[in-house]
Design brief:
The structure holds 2 protein chains of 2 kinds.
Chain A: H1 3-12, H2 19-27, H3 29-49, H4 53-59, H5 64-73, H6 92-102, H7 104-108, H8 115-122, E1 128-129, E2 135-144, E3 147-156, E4 159-166, E5 175-179, E6 182-188, E7 193-198, H9 204-214, E8 215-216
Antiparallel strand pairs in A: 1-8, 2-3, 3-4, 4-7, 5-6, 6-7
Helix pairs in contact in A: 1-3, 2-3
Chain B: H1 3-33, H2 36-52, H3 63-82, H4 89-95, H5 97-100, H6 106-117, H7 120-131, H8 136-143, H9 147-164
Classes of the chains: A alpha+beta, B mainly alpha.
């Protein structure tokens, strides 16, 4: 199986598996990542489709015929079935590290991101960067914990750091971590939190503070 | 079991199915027609039809698929009756903003809007696959298509969503 065949398959069925799929995943890290991204996107699609049915019912006009039927067959019956399936989630630190480790090319990018591209990544979440943060050499919208989040790489005085703006994730205080050669911190932010991850920074907290102060979280 | 008991049992079984599956049927109809009033109408009519032909359901384990098929047919009938035309997409999104809203989760709301804007031919198989858990063969049977056509539509649906959300776009096969 070549890359094109693989991507056709997983593009139609991200959850597909099998010997040929697994073999190609082992051979091609980019395709494996592509499938992982599609699986993450499917999780987001699943959440998006699961609109609150009550909102549809509450707003839509009721029809007497349905009420009559419902009254005759539903009233008096109490059937409650709730199945909440939750899978154990990795810690936030592990999720952040895994995400960064999955995109090694991001940390080595050197070409400056155009302002309009950066705006395209940040505008949807109502965020922007103040001048002076440093050169942004990577900007992409990624799926992280079933959410679309901005993923940036900023060139600081101590080297590149990855920045993830996690508006959906609240932390009560700084969460520091060091794994797989990465060191990082997740800081509480006005909207959710911000994760800053580097490799060789001597003063990561100082860098993290600079990055944090350069983010305008909007209203 | 006498006749009255059988009738009561039949009503109870149908009511249980309605209560369990109605939210999914409403969601399916909503994503099919992109109109909450139409969704409610279609599901009501579909359940009435289902009630009348409930005895034709051989296995209750297949009730969801059976009801979805009825909803889909009822939707096609409504579509014929009302001759719905694809209105301005912006207006459609605005009209259903309450249902599409996702408080404090801009990414989720964006995805909902992107799904809303997908054309019918791409949105329906994606809904059947992701929300209903259908296999591509089941989708093909439901939609009266070849499996290959379903695979192509699903691929393109995701490619368009990635493009719309400015995730990495993939070329069409």
């Amino acid at each position: 199986m070549n890359c094109l065949e693989f991507r056709r398959r997983v593009g139609a069925e991200p959850s597909v598996s099998g010997d040929d799929i697994e073999a190609h995943r082992r051979e091609c890290a980019a395709c494996a990542r592509h499938q992982d991204e599609l699986r993450a996107m499917d999780a987001l699609i699943g959440r998006a489709l699961a609109v609150d049915a009550e909102r549809i019912r509450k707003i839509a006009p009721r029809r007497p015929r349905w009420l009559a039927l419902a009254a005759s067959i539903v009233i008096g019956l109490s059937v409650g079935l709730a199945l909440w399936i939750s899978s154990p989630r990795q810690s936030l630190a592990r999720e952040v590290i895994d995400h960064v480790a999955h995109e090694p090319a991001a940390m080595t990018a050197t070409v400056l991101i155009a302002p309009e591209v950066l705006a395209g990544v940040l505008d949807p979440v109502g965020t922007r960067l103040r001048p002076g943060i440093g050169d942004v050499t990577y900007a992409r919208r990624c799926i992280f914990e079933w959410r679309v989040v901005p993923h940036l790489v900023v060139q600081t005085s101590q080297g590149p750091v990855t920045v993830l703006l996690l508006r959906h994730r609240n932390v009560s205080g700084p969460v520091r971590f060091a794994e797989q050669g990465y060191a990082g911190v997740v800081l509480p932010a006005p909207r959710g939190s911000i994760a800053i991850v580097g490799r060789d920074q001597k003063d990561l907290d100082g860098i993290a503070q600079q990055v944090f102060e350069a983010v305008d979280w909007g209203n | 079991m006498n006749r009255d008991d059988r009738g009561t049992d039949r009503r109870r079984r149908f009511a249980t199915l309605c209560e369990t599956l109605r939210p999914d049927l409403l969601r399916f109809a909503f994503w099919l027609g992109r109109d909450r009033e139409l969704a409610e109408d279609v599901v009501q009519e579909a359940l009435l039809r289902a009630w009348k032909s409930f005895d034709a359901l051989a296995e209750e384990g297949k009730a969801k698929s059976w009801l979805l098929t009825i909803v889909r047919r009822e939707f096609a009938r409504s579509f014929e009756r009302k001759r719905l035309e694809v209105a301005d997409l912006d207006a459609l999104v605005a009209a259903e903003a309450t249902v599409l809203a996702a408080e404090d989760d801009a990414g989720l709301a964006e995805m909902r809007e992107a799904l809303f804007r997908l054309s019918d031919e791409y949105r329906e198989p994606l809904v059947l696959q992701v929300m209903m858990g259908y296999t591509t063969q089941e989708i093909a049977d439901q939609m009266g298509l070849q499996q290959g056509a379903v695979l192509t539509r699903l691929f393109r649906a995701r490619a368009r969503l990635r493009q719309e959300l400015r995730l990495d776009a993939e070329p069409s096969p």
